[in-house]
Amino acid sequence: MNRRTLANLPLGAALALLTISTASAELRLPAIIGDNMVLQRDQANRIWGWDNPGATVTVEIASQKKQAKADAKGKWIVTLDPLPVTKPDAQPLAMRVSGSSIRELKNILVGEVWLCSGQSNMGFNLGTNYDADLESLSSKFPRLRLISVPQIGTQEPQDDFKGQWEEATNPEVIKQFTAAGFFYGRLLHQILDVPVGLIDNAWGGSSCEAWIRRDILENDPSYKPLMDDWRNREKTYNHEAELEKHKAAMEKWKVQAAAAKAQGKTSPKPPRAPTNALTGQHRPGNLYCGVLHPTIGYGMRGAIWYQGESNAGRAFEYRQLFPLMIKHWRDEWNLPGAAHDFPFYWVQLADYMAEKPEPGDSGWAELREAQTLTMSKLPNTGQAVITDLGEAKDIHPRNKRDVAERLVRWALVKDYGLQLPYRSPEFKTLKIEGNKARVSFDYVGSGLKTFDVDEVRGFAICGEDRKFAWAKASILNTNTVEVWCDTVAKPVAVRYAWADNPVCNLFSSDDLPVTPFRTDDFPMLTQPK
After folding, report:
1. What does pLDDT average to over the chain?
2. Which entry of 7, 11, 404, 427 is 20 to 30 Å from 450 by CA?
């Protein structure tokens, strides 16, 4: 049973599969700790499980022997001393866990572990990538390990899930794994020549608030409107009634489809079946409890994230919500020492939807800005800018390899000490001189350049009337662009790539696209009135 099948089960049946029975007289280990797993190198790793209350459990691996006593609920935990990386010519490790029974775990490696999370563009599996057939057939990486968490949305924290670590050698297994995560992990594995373990818990369409423990949101006045709305929804939502509505809509559709067929016309699309709002991926706390909680505490280097589409309508709120989530995860993992603030790298929203003939406000642009601002609020964060990799008619662009390459640059430089271009150019300063604006940038490499055509595209400018017009621009020097418009005599603000689907072509010399920005602080489209 794969994670998608489990996600489609009724909640009661799904939870029954995942519930840990502490009354059992057998030693139990969670799915995240098992055969084929990768332990984080050079880090104290926690190993945990369940046994009879009061039982003494011994964990042995390499030359280490650690003991713990199960608490009143049967939970036990030991902390291993840091282990060195498993070298290419070394044999995998074995782990023996002894309590009221014995578990022998085999084929364990020590290397780099990364969590791959977010919504559908992270969940977008390798089987739907543009070259899925070649990628899956050519994947023969026994030291790259994968594990996926089933999609369970619940308000009850789950301690385990149904899944297992797999070697990246089976094309059918690989096709079901996150494409962006797979390419990211494979690059790390090939470049660093170390084992890599990837944990995939992404859920398509998920909202940021679903990944945060509910009481944190309840106790913050900033989120009172959000939580009030959900409390009202929880009181009134009737999934059975929604199913009946869908059943009636389907009967109506069948009549329409038959009529269309008889007339030789294209049949309308059938109505989409309702998803249960109470067990879905939007309800605050649901994904924290259902898919994140079972993995919290497992040793890892960091996390990669691709999400934001579902929060674009509340981009102003995302300025605080997204950093809150990252800090919350770090506190929950509570990794020792400097590892506490583990690296967290995300993909900025791609270009999507129709191109607009005139510049204006954009919820997606505001969400991108919220993502960019997060880098200045939290340490060990970074983003991959991909405004050149999207598809206007598809919210799921199929090129995930380039996405992963931009993400992995951050890790290779910031976490593994390589010298590579990794950060997209970002707005630095604005200087108005007459009817022209000079915009300078950081992180330009050896300079700025245009893509596809010589003309610089993507800038808009406005005067005191705050009415933006498309602007002309030219690259003045290594890090400065001059911007102007013949109809704006006294400019006050400049924007770049500020649209759902911006037409823009300014890059660093290292082929990284300039980060979308605005120099103004005008009221936002998504800002509460």
Report:
1. 94
2. 404
DSSP 156: S
Task: Please report the domains of the chain, with CATH numbers, ordered by start residue.
Answer: 3-200 (2.60.40.10), 238-276 (no CATH), 426-518 (no CATH)
**Ranges of H-type helices in 39-195:** 120-123, 132-137, 171-175, 179-192
Residue 23 in this model has a pLDDT that exceeds 50: no
| Burial annotation 198-217 (CB, 10 A radius, 16+ → b, else e) | bbbbbbbbbbbbbbbbbebb
Residue 44: pLDDT over 60: yes
3-class secondary-structure state, position 499: coil
Give helix 401-414 / helix 179-192 axis angle, nearest 10°.
40
- 25 burial (CB, 10 Å; 0-12 / 13-18 / 19+) is exposed
Smallest CA-to-CA distance from 312 within 284, 351, 280, 283 is with 351
Q: Which residue has the tokens 């009636």?
A: 248
**What does the block give as tokens for 3?**
């994670």
pLDDT at 135: 86
Give the whole-angstrom CA distance, residue 129 versus residue 398: 5
| pTM exceeds cut of 0.90 | yes
* 497-526 burial code (b ≥16 CB/10 A, e <16): bbbbbbebbbbbebebbbbbbbbeeeebeb
- Could you report the per-residue pLDDT of 464-496, keeping only the tens digit for each? 999 999 999 999 999 999 999 999 999 999 999
Is residue 6 predicted with pLDDT exceeding 80? no
